[in-house]
Amino acid sequence: MMNSLVSMNVWVLVALITALTLLVSGAMAFAFARLLGGEEREKAGNTAAAYMTALGSLFAILTGFLINSEYSTLRDTQRIVGMEIAGASRLAYASASLPAADAELVQDSLTRYLENVQAGEWQALGTGSATRSPAIDSLRALERSVSTIASRAYLNDTEASSIARAIESVTSARRQRVVIASQSLPIALFALSVIAGIALVANALLVSVRAGPRYSLVALGIILVVALDLVAILAISAPFRGAFQVDIAPVTELVNELRAGQYLDWVRIR
Amino acid sequence: MIARTLALAAAVVAVLGLSACGTPSPGQSARAECARDDGACIEVGVGRPIYIGTLLFETDSGGMDAKRSLAMAVDYLDGQFDTIDGQLLGHPVVTLPEAEDCTPKGGSDGAKRLLLEPDLVAVIGTTCSAASFDAAAKVLSEKSVLMISPSNTSPSLTDPGLRERYYFRTAANDLIQGAAVASFERDRLKARTAGVISVPDAYSRVLGDAFATRFEALGGRADARGSMSLRGSAAGAVAKVAAARPDVVFLPLIEPACTRAVKAIRDTPALAATKIVVSESCQTPKLSRALGAAANGVYASGPDAKAGSRDGFYTGLFLPAYRDRFGGAPPSVFHATGFDAANLLFGAIRRASVRLPGGALIIDRAKVRSAMLDVEGYQGLSGVLTCRPTGDCAQGARIAVYRSPAWPQLSAGAKPVFSQTLTLAEVTGQG
């Protein structure tokens, strides 16, 4: 259920959660209107008004915490992708000093790995099947060719260690990506936020029921804010799928540069 | 109202449809571009091979060396010389072998046979300049098929007025060898007169001319000229040269003309004191095997394969792997240029190809040519390569002269008696 929700397109998610929240709110408003008489409405409204601030704060703290933590994860993932691309580009630069046949080979393997990342890595990580990513085999091939070349006697220590270090940073960044992809939204906290949101909406409805239909717009505003907050949490909580994914553009850009031969010293770039 | 809504919805769908049409996939745009290039494109399906033709004179050691070097380069596509072929962009490389016989007809016929394969991407060859000039190079260029020769050296092939558009070579232009041999004979051998025996083809005659022009520019006289046929007797040509009793005779020949000419010179008493210098095509074990001790003292010029190479890769990896695979040292100097030719081609294909989803490729042969022209300062086994529109990729070369029996093909520790590094710009007066 959660997996399906976090994988949804942002507009579908907005529509769905808003509709759900409106439905629940409508049901509550209907129930309050039917169950509470005039005096009870007044009392309930007064009591609810006293708790508005507390409930509002509770909801804000819970959703704020979740949004902040999920956004940090998204940002960290983007940073890790950046680190991986930096490592890949260091590898490409370092390989340029190898004998020409080796340089082409390393850069070709690197290109294939990045192409596979582009083609299916996000999807594999998003569905929790990192081991089925097409990038795994190409990363293995890249590591093998780099370690074979790095162990050869005709390379000096600097050349060998710089390509070895660069491939290490690529593989460790990928590992971090996989770890992040395996993490999921803390369900208990999210459930608590939903409950706080429902309580806040109920409170707002009680206040507006007491104040009269003209003030129901205030309650509607709160209902929409609650819905959008929940949408925001769901949308950013899966960095490799759904609404707000980690940007793959740096990978695409490096693939294009490698294909054009920009990291080969002997290729004139027009 | 309903009609208006429907019209609005239709307009939205149309706009979306048009915007989808406006952003073609990489495959669509590559195909469209190919159509503009007179069908110079090849679509390589998933799992299908990339076809590279070879057009070589395999009974010649240079041709055999080029064939072996291509096999080594395909082997090394997986990063190891393990006799298991690697892949290029995820596709196997299949070589289509055709033979040439060092004649223009042989070159043209071989090129036409290769063109029967519609998915032919490029050709490595020819061995002999004679098979390229106004022959294979022309036939292949007319069909936009790139040709890279590891051993053509004739200046005519890259003459700006005569060159073919899709022709490249990694072997050094003979203007360089001609000049270096002239310097060796004038400065080291102190020769004042020189003779030249050549075969009337694009390689032999033009190298002989390049040498003679330079020798005379250095103050010598090189007017003793003899001409023979490739498989005919050398007696007439040697007799003609012997009349002038030159200090040195230069033989820009290929086998079997080479062995015959050296033997005829050795059998001519008037040339007993005359020194013999042969060009790189004769620098093979065949000559010493055929002539035995009579071959001793013969000088051989040619590109110094070790000069431009990264020593470690060449000596530590390539040469041992070559020996392991073929049971001996490379028989000619063209193993390095052959390996470079194949790798330049593979690199150009990598840069010029469009990858389609799933692994299929579109290779635009016109773009492969452009990618070759982007090569500048490639550190190959044979030296630094920069490909110019004339087709010359070796812009300079170190020419080494060895004295038999200390030729590198006969003795691993052979040291040159003379070497000179010259650039094409220097010898053409543009440097």
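Chain B has two domains: 43-172+307-394, 175-304+398-427.
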